[in-house]
Amino acid sequence: MTSSHIHFELRGEHREIAIIRLARGAKRNALSDALMAELARAIDSLPDTVRAAVLDGEGEHFCAGLDLSELKDRDAGQGLHHSRSWHSILERVQYGPVPFVAALHGAVVGGGLELASACHIRVADESTFYALPEGSRGIFVGGGGSVRIPKLIGVARMADMMLTGRVYNAADGERIGLAQYLVPTGQAFDKAFELAVRVAQNAPLTNYALMHALPRIAEQSADHGFLTESMMAAIAQSAPEAKQRVNAFLQGKAAKVKKS
User: Fold this and answer.
1) pTM recorded for the entire structure
2) For residue 224, what are the contacts with CB-CB under 8 A and spacing of at least 6?
3) What sections of 143-253 are H helices per DSSP?
4) Do 168 and 246 reside in the same domain of the chain?
5) Residue 178, φ and ψ in degrees, nearest 5
6) Among 129, 149, 160, 176, which one is most buried in terms of CB atoms within 10 A?
7) What is the CATH number of the domain that holds 142?
8) In this structure, is residue 147 part of a structural domain?
9) What is the pLDDT of residues 94-133, one digit of tens each?
C-alpha cells in the first residue's frame, strides 16, 4: 500500500515486518493532516501477519515537525478537537497492535519528536538532531509531547528545549534518553529493521504486555502495579506459545543469554 504521503511495504519471510515511511521528503516530512490520516489508515490496516513495524522518513530527515502552512486560524474549541485528533492517531502507534521501532535521522523536531516519542524503540544515526521550537513560535505542543517527552527526558529538560530553543545533537540525545540506540550516519534504518526482526520473534502476548501493561504499571502505585504485573504474568505464561518456549529452553533447545 502506497499513498501520497506514506509508503508502506511488508518484509520478512512471513511478511511480519511492516515498513511505514513518511514520504514528504521535499517538505522534510513535515506533518500535515493528510499525512497523519494516512498514517492512521496504515496502522489500522496492518495484516495479521505483522509482528513489528519500522517507522522511517524519506530523504535526509525523519520529520521536521508540523507543516506550519496548515496552521489555521482556529478558535479554542477547534484547536482542542484538532489536537485530540492527533492524540488519537499517535495512540495507535503507542498502544496499537504491534511494537514500533523508529529510524531517526536528520531533523526530529517538534511534531516529529512527538511522533518518535510514541514509538517503543528509537534508533538514531549521527546526523540526528532534536528540537522543540514551538516556544519561539508562540504555540505549544499538541500531539502528546507534553506527556510522552518528559517521561523520556524529564520535565526540566523539555521545558529548557521549549524556553530556550535548545537543540540536542545525536550523541547528547541518546545520552539523555531521546533514543536508545546511536549508529553511524545512514545506518538507522538497517539497525531499526534488525531490531524489529528480533522483536517480531517474541511471543505476541509478551509484546502486547510490554506495549500496553508496562507503561500503565509505571503510572500506578506500587501496590496496584504489583497486582497488575501478577495478572499479566499469569496471562502471558498460560499461553500455549509460552509453554512451548519454556519447555524448549528446559530441554536445551533454546539459545541462552550471552554477553553482547
Assistant:
1) 0.94
2) none
3) 145-153, 155-164, 170-176, 188-200, 204-208, 214-219, 222-238, 240-250
4) no
5) -75, -25
6) 149
7) 3.90.226.10
8) yes
9) 999 999 999 999 999 999 999 999 999 999 999 999 999 9
